[in-house]
Amino acid sequence: MQIAVALFYLCASAPYAFAQHKGTPYGFAKGVTGGGSATPAYPKDIAQLKSWLADDMARVTMIDKTFDFIGSEGTVTENRCRMKDTCTAANGGQDTIKQGGCDDNETSIQVKYDKASYVGMPVGSNKSLIGVGSKGVLHGKGLRFNTAAKNVIIQNIHIDNLNPQYVWGGDGISLYGNDGVWIDHCKISRTGRQHFVSHYEGSRVTISNTEFDGRTSYSHSCNGDHYWTFIFGGKADKITLDRNYWHDLSGRSPKIGSSEGTQIIQAVNNWFSSNTGHNFDISSSGRVLIEGNRWENTETPITTGSSAAKIWSVPDSSCTSRLGRNCELNALTASGDFPSRKDSAVLDELAKYKTNPVTPIAYGNVKGTVSGNYGIGRI
Ligand SMILES: *[C@@H]1O[C@H](CO)[C@@H](O)[C@H](O)[C@H]1NC(C)=O
Ligand SMILES: *[C@@H]1O[C@H](CO)[C@@H](O)[C@H](O)[C@H]1NC(C)=O
């Protein structure tokens, strides 16, 4: 009887064990359920995938192959801009498909870009989008959340190749005021513009165990490393960045701040490696706890221009009194400076959210933990 029950349990639970998201949303995404217990379904083609993502019905959508969007919406040929200096798409840089004409430092050229990559797929409420093994690839299209869509899980998905030769060529994941988003064990690479952008309405998000791979043949810095990685600029954005791997990037990884209110962010236990430009670039609207992160071979962990932001970055009894635990040290090897920052307004702000702040692991364990766990194919 015991054996029969055990066998039944194994058989009954196996499809679910492989089919739905793994783990539990935490940090600011705590409580997110995505598509919940909806039966996992496998879209047969691009049209079906798009329709399942765009509506507000609770759905668990599985990606078990590469969806190749390149060419699926055609191409655009038009006159846009190229820098007059030597860093252009013709020699390892980027050209620009911005609207509104070229400036004094640019010249007009004809560009040709993929239309599908230029704008992401709409994403509605109550969704889980889950990759199977390491097969969950969206090639040539990102995700663009519907305004105010809620309760979404994106796990084990690789977004790749969004017109990387063009600034504005495409964003990996774009949010528009989305309450409750968990992005976990994903990978983003070769975007034209941002890997991730929250725009101007507030979103509540955790991004965890994700790889931001900046290696590109078209770098705005002309050094093989992607520049325009992140912008968190939403009004009252609440964002957890935990255990992500940020590498071969040259800027804005992340940029935090806008004129739209404050952004409350905990960046904890991230691993930053081989970045040739800046990681944190935070303007005065940022309220950022940066703790337990590991840097190596990174030129500028934080810009000097971040001086007007509110930042906390050191262990101190103020952490214990506000968060009920000490903060964790950041560790830097062969990297630029990270001057200590102690603006307790950051801790006051995070303390309001009680169970949302993540308790860090020790800085000495970050590289080992993140390097064995980041990205796709590991859940
Ligand atoms: C999402 O799911 C929740 C809980 O099941 C439900 O209350 C809500 O109406 C759904 N939202 C949408 C937009 O369908
Ligand atoms: C053109 O380049 C110069 C020198 O880098 C810079 O000072 C100026 O602001 C640029 N102009 C525009 C319109 O971006």
TrEMBL record:
Keywords per UniProt: Carbohydrate metabolism, Disulfide bond, Glycoprotein, Lyase, Polysaccharide degradation, Secreted, Signal
Chain ranges of the Pectate lyase domain: 92-301
One Pfam family per UniProt: Pectate_lyase_4
Broad class of enzyme this protein falls into: lyase
Stored InterPro entries: Pec_lyase (IPR002022), Pectin_lyas_fold (IPR012334), Pectin_lyase_fold/virulence (IPR011050), PEL (IPR045032)
Top-level taxon of the source organism: Eukaryota
Subcellular location per the Swiss-Prot or TrEMBL entry: Secreted
Predominant cellular place of this UniProt entry's protein: secreted
Catalytic activity field: Eliminative cleavage of (1->4)-alpha-D-galacturonan methyl ester to give oligosaccharides with 4-deoxy-6-O-methyl-alpha-D-galact-4-enuronosyl groups at their non-reducing ends
Enzyme Commission number: 4.2.2.10
Keyword Lyase (UniProt): yes
Gene3D superfamilies: Single-stranded right-handed beta-helix, Pectin lyase-like (2.160.20.10)
Signal peptide annotation: 1-19
Family: Belongs to the polysaccharide lyase 1 family.
Function: Pectinolytic enzymes consist of four classes of enzymes: pectin lyase, polygalacturonase, pectin methylesterase and rhamnogalacturonase. Among pectinolytic enzymes, pectin lyase is the most important in depolymerization of pectin, since it cleaves internal glycosidic bonds of highly methylated pectins.
The protein, known as: pectin lyase
Naturally occurring in which organism (per UniProt): Bionectria ochroleuca (Gliocladium roseum)
